[in-house]
Specification:
4 helices, alpha+beta, globular
Length: 90
């Protein structure tokens, strides 16, 4: 299981938070996550995501289905950053 920290900007934070698209696209793959918003009230949001199969996740993220889901959620794809959990800990 891989843990990813993802952050990006969205057009409308409230719309992004309420959208069912994440569950529709990630749920069938067993991908779960926690959502975060910027306390400074910017359009920056984040997720901590648990991914059972990284290869499947990577293929999904390159698909038209993922691109459409991002458009529907108002995600600004050029701001997307993914960080994979390091094996070293504090």
């Amino acid at each position: 299981m891989a843990t990813i920290l993802a952050f990006h900007e969205v057009d409308d934070v409230e719309h992004w938070l309420r959208s069912p698209k994440r569950q529709e696209i990630f749920g069938p793959l067993g991908i779960t996550g926690r959502l975060f918003t910027d306390p400074a009230k910017t359009n920056r949001v984040g997720l901590v995501v648990e991914i059972p199969d990284m290869e499947t996740f990577q293929r999904l993220m390159q698909s038209d289905e993922a691109a459409e889901a991002m458009r529907a959620d108002g995600v600004r794809p050029d701001t997307l950053v993914l960080l994979e959990e390091a094996s070293e800990h504090l």
